[in-house]
Structures are given as C-alpha cells and as structure tokens.
C-alpha cells in the first residue's frame, strides 16, 4: 500500500477541528467537491472509514480520530523539515520578524508562534505589536517576514491570505442605560453616541467606521481615543462609556460579568483577519511555515470565545510591545 497523501492528512485534521468538510475545504482554499474527493481517496488508500457525514456536518469516527492524531505528528515533522531545509538553502538564518495588529498579537499570534517553535525550536521570533496600518507599511517595506492585520481592506502591493475570522462587540459598563435595555440599539443611535475607540489606523476603528458607513451613518466625535484594546477595556470597565472591541478582547470580561454586550440591529461587525507580505516576494522558509500554522484550522470567534493562553517563547523586537 502506498503512503497517504499529505494534503489528505491535512484535510482530515481540519475536518476534525472544524466539524465540517466545507469549513475545512475553505481553510485549505479548495472547493468542497474537491475536498470530498480527497477525503474519499484517503479512506480508500488507508481502507478505513474516517469520517461520518451528516446533515449537521462531518464527524471523525473513532478510527478517524486516531488517524488524525497520527497525522498531526506527521504534519508537524513536515513543517519542521520545510523550515530546516530552508535554513540549509540559506533562505533564512533562523530569525523571523513578524508584526501583528493588537487583537491578533494579544489573542492569536502567541499560540501560532508557540506551535511553530515547537516544530522548529532553534527559530528566534521577534514580534512587533502595532496597528493594522503600520503592519501593512512594514510588510510593504519588507522590514518583516510576515504581517497579520485586521483592517477591512489590504493596501495594494501586498499579497494576503485569510487566517481567521473575528467580530466586534459593542460593550458597556454595568451601570450604563444600554446594559438594561431590552431592545437592540439602532445603527444611527450608535453613531450618535460618543464612543471610546481605538486610534485611526487600527483595524478595529476602520471596521467600525466602514460598518456604519454601509448603514448610511457617520459616527460623531469619539469620547476617548486610546492606543490599545486593553486601555479601551479598562476605560469601559471604569464607567467612562461604551466601546466597540473585538469579541476576543472582551470575552473574559463578558463571561465574568464586568462588561455587558449590547446588540446592534442591522450592523454587520464581522471581519476577516489576514496575513500579508509583499506581492513581489515568494513566501518561503519560516514565514511560510508560520503562515501554514496560522491558516491551518484556527477557530472562528464565537460569543463565548476566551482569549488564547499566552506563549512566552516569542520575543519582541527592540522598541516593540511584547506579546502577552
């Protein structure tokens, strides 16, 4: 029997993580019919039933879970091989400079970098934490190997790939009138309310402004403009006023009852989180390996999502903020 297809193994692992063949196919950027054929081919090659397909999604069989666990180890070794081979070719010097916008840097990038370093322990990673506009500028000037941003658009000259999904949440302190409100807030009402916001150039601020623009409303002058999500969260918790932040950033506060999320009617605050690099440059070495980790089955944000545990293996660049 010939060995299994590597991409088939990767697909199997993603089906187990996503609980859906369609979502797994989306993460691999292939069509669902192509994914179904690839999975069927893997089952035929191994002569095992790996997945049960049903109206609510796809579920790994007990045999499929065992194979997926082995596959994860195989894929980890392959990623280590790719990084090591690139080093032998001289394409990298075991250093990787990465920049990420605030939400990604605080809640997703540490886990991605930690996974990569488990596969390539000799790799030294420097993570700059900044806003999306600056991430794009650093990538365009090729000052970083890979960037992660959360803005709704990608500047020209950059190649991008979706790595995760996120949504923004309107949050208020416990004593705010909206905390006791039983009907949704309207978009025009939100736009007329002075909010605590991130600085211009941040993906969170751009996403909010564009979402309001699509409803035909323009936000009034902010109540406060702060340079980090942590500062915005603290201001809201202290009773300064309402804010709009990533659901990742406020998940713990909502779960513990320190903040209250307010429903806004007819306002789409979902967004895509992307990796970026110069369009003229072929991504390789450690940067390509990190991209594979980041796009390989990260969960989408749900209302009950909790922040990722920090990883202490990544080291910040001089003058940049450390990844928590």
UniProtKB/TrEMBL annotation:
Q: Where is this region: Disordered?
A: 294-324
Instruction: Domain (HTH lysR-type): give its ranges.
Output: 4-61
Q: Which UniProt keywords apply?
A: DNA-binding, Transcription, Transcription regulation
Which family would the database say this protein is a member of? Answer: Belongs to the LysR transcriptional regulatory family.
* Annotated protein name in UniProt: LysR family transcriptional regulator
Which species is this UniProt entry from?
A: Pseudonocardia adelaidensis
Record lineage: Bacteria, Bacillati, Actinomycetota, Actinomycetes, Pseudonocardiales
